């Protein structure tokens, strides 16, 4: 399967106003890509674009607005005159929740952004890639999607959903010659994790996280999980019998 390059078309990054998405846009531009950058905060997208004249297209949107997402993608392609061939569906949100503070409104909000928002973005780019039999889609899940983790009742739910979604899509996209990756980051230093009061093992710099993602995408890897020090233990834990899984995770997260 051919992995797209900047010669084939443009890249699109959602959640590009801060954190991982912003850094990904910067590193993609360094690789020579024209990058369409999307999120809600227009000023932050504009400042990113201002730092990379001629290399970025500001395309504000709210991923929960299906019509708005579709319109933004059409506008990006119409104005640039080029097709999106690498789409990184990264926009996401995280609110810590546990059984005692479980709240349906908070649950719905995270499902709306993380799951339905990703679905809206997928629906905006996938049909053209299937028809053209080329392109690359990356879905940003999380190591928290590998197994239900404490304090992540909703977040783990949404990220596990994205992982399953990617696994299912892979069969069809392989047949259509469209590359697909699912990205499972561990803890990365961004505004999303700033509010965490618990220890974050193997916390990574955002530049290192973006580099790991781009290496994985350029090599066409399906599962891009990092850092290894956290990814491997979690991948191992999820195959353990349930009593062992709960005992080990409870012990290592008793802060
Ligand atoms: N940081 C970590 O440790 C970590 C670990 C695993 C996975 N992840 C995942 O990585 C992705 C990026 O996270 P981050 O750490 O870089 O967080 P971040 O700095 O908070 O960035 C989140 C991005 O998503 C955008 N976004 C949120 N809601 C949106 C909406 N309704 N419509 C459009 N854009 C929206 C935000 O932009 P606006 O507010 O401008 O809309 C922002 O650009 C998320 O999917 C997150 O779950 C992060």
Radius of gyration: 18 Å
- By DSSP, the count of extended strands is 7
What is the correct CATH architecture? 3-Layer(aba) Sandwich
The CATH topology, please?
A: Rossmann fold
The portion of residues forming beta strands comes to 5-15%
In what order do the strands lie side by side in the largest sheet?
3-2-1-4-5-6-7
Bound molecules: NADP nicotinamide-adenine-dinucleotide phosphate
How many helices does DSSP assign? 9
Reading off the top of the CATH hierarchy, the class is best stated as: Alpha Beta
Outline of the structure:
The protein has helices at 19-30, 42-50, 66-80, 104-132, 153-175, 191-194, 206-218, 228-237, 242-252, and strands spanning 10-14, 35-38, 56-58, 84-89, 136-140, 179-185, 223-226. It is of the alpha/beta class and 255 residues long.
């Amino acid at each position: 399967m051919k992995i797209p390059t900047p010669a084939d078309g443009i890249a699109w990054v959602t959640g590009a106003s801060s954190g991982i998405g912003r850094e990904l846009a910067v590193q993609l531009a360094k690789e020579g890509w024209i990058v369409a950058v999307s999120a809600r905060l227009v000023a932050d997208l504009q400042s990113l674009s201002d730092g990379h004249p001629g290399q970025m297209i500001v395309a504000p949107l709210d991923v929960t607005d299906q019509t708005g997402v579709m319109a933004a993608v059409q506008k990006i392609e119409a104005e640039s005159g080029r097709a999106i061939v690498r789409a990184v569906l990264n926009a996401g949100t995280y609110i810590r929740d546990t059984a005692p503070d479980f709240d349906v409104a908070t649950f719905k909000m995270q499902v709306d952004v993380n799951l339905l928002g990703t679905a809206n973005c997928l629906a905006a780019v996938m049909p053209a890639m299937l028809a053209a039999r080329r392109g690359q889609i990356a879905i940003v899940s999380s190591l928290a999607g590998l197994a239900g983790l404490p304090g992540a009742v909703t977040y783990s739910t949404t990220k596990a959903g994205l992982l399953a979604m990617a696994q299912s899509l892979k069969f069809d996209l392989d047949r259509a010659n469209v590359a697909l990756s699912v990205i499972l980051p561990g803890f990365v230093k961004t505004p999303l994790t700033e509010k965490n009061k618990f220890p974050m093992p193997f916390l990574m710099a955002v530049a290192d996280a973006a580099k790991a993602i781009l290496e994985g995408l350029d090599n066409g890897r399906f599962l891009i999980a990092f850092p290894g020090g956290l990814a491997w233990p979690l991948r191992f834990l999820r195959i353990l019998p349930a009593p062992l899984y709960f005992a080990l995770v409870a012990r290592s997260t008793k802060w």
